[in-house]
Amino acid sequence: MSPAITVGVISLLNCKQKKTSSKTDIDMDKVVAEARKNWAGNYSYKAKTLRTPNTVEELQDLIKESVKQKALGSKHCFNNIADSPTEQISTKNLNRLISIDEDAKTVTIESGIRYGELAPQLQEKGYALHNLASLPHISVAGACATATHGSGVTNGNLPSAVTTIELVTADGQIVELNREQPDFYGAVVGLGALGIIARMTLDIEKTYNVRQDLFQNLPVAELQEHFDEIMSSGYSVSLFTDYQNDTVSQVWVKSRTDRKLKDFGSFYGASAATKKLHPITAMPAENCTDQMGVEGPWYERLPHFKMGFTPSSGKELQSEYFVAKENAAEAYMALVGIKDVIFPQLMISEVRSIAADDYWMSPCYKRDCVTFHFTWKQNWPQVRKILGRIEETLSPFGVLPHWGKMFTLEPATLYSRHKKMDDFVLLAKKYDPKGKFRNSFLDLNVYRT
Ligand SMILES: Cc1cc2nc3c(=O)[nH]c(=O)nc-3n(C[C@H](O)[C@H](O)[C@H](O)COP(=O)(O)OP(=O)(O)OC[C@H]3O[C@@H](n4cnc5c(N)ncnc54)[C@H](O)[C@@H]3O)c2cc1C
After folding, report:
1. What confidence score (pLDDT) does residue 36 get?
2. Are 70 and 170 in contact (CB under 8 A)?
3. Which residue ranges does the record assign to the FAD-binding PCMH-type domain (predicted)?
4. Domains with residue ranges and CATH for the chain
5. How buried is 434 (Cβ within 10 angstroms: 0-12 exposed, 13-18 middle, 19+ buried)?
6. Most ligand 1 atoms within 8 A of CB, residue of 74, 139, 288, 320 to mutate
């Protein structure tokens, strides 16, 4: 019998037969119930089976055995990037912290660990990561594979912390890549195209505390005038807006308390929030991380949402667009120009900054970026039309989409704007010559076949 657990029609029986009170079995029931859909429920995976190895050796065996497969992390992508025509391999049970190297200031982990599982273990040992995304529920390898990011003008995206990956390639062998090797820069933000990352090493630093100060109703005129200063007013800054009024509804400023705190004074005409807020002002804020200037550990402040809670109902779609930092204010105003198009399907939009990196497939490759994120109602036919308008509107700024969210940009446009796409395709073919990890997303957007 295969050492790994198969989830699908057959494994449903297996899980029921094996029902005990062990944590694994409880989790398996949940996986079976949710297995065929992504987190938001807008996409049903076509892969017939889902395999869940418990060790790296099991992962290697599975990869060797199968002809077609794709890694599945925590299922938080909104499109079909993690799907496979045949088989998905979940890294869910590869979720251990392996070791901390105190001299090198690095942590080595199994790839399926979620940031929310890793962070408290690092904190316990006195360490921290440089940044986190808006929620901690996502797997480290899945997040890095799609260039997931938080905010902060000096903060690179989450993969910028990666120092080494151990990649299981199509023949089941492990290839180790680190920052000294050119292939590393193609492989980390790898869209799951090169193989399945089994283990990763990340930079860590001494733990730090963060406080969140929120401001409301920032005049757009001030934003236009002081875009860079506002985005630099804390370690990590997010703007929440619906583009409708002459104001940005909320500014979230996350400041490290081990660094000199900015004197906010009057915040560019915005007023300090008088109570805890959800990014959508009308929604209850109890699932959000603590605000009102209350200091707390990095991992309980950098994400907007707490680990123990579902960040929202999940009945939503997301898109996110990257433009170079120098175009940010102009791009914002261009979006204001189509606010009536955007509004009917919009739940909220978030603006963030990300520092440049060296990853070939990162939208921030060699350029500091600002991103425009959109949380949409789950109405794809309407949202799809709006995305076309947004992409057209931001086209003069060479806009690129988040790989894990919804977009409609043509593959030829992606190709013309991702300068290292050819090198990436060559690299993917080097590690996956028979296309074991190819799926329809990669065929369309990367291989363009
Ligand atoms: C509520 C919500 C909030 C979000 N917030 C943010 C945010 O703040 N910032 C942001 O940038 N994005 C955000 N995202 C998007 C999300 O973080 C990314 O799409 C990320 O890829 C999700 O990771 P995952 O493990 O769930 O990936 P999955 O959807 O499971 O997989 C994504 C890709 O990673 C590959 N992959 C997974 N594991 C491996 C592995 N071990 N080896 C090789 N390839 C692998 C898969 O094959 C696939 O191509 C958010 C998504 C949701 C649903």
Report:
1. 84
2. no
3. 43-207
4. 5-90 (3.30.43.10), 97-206 (3.30.465.10)
5. exposed
6. 139
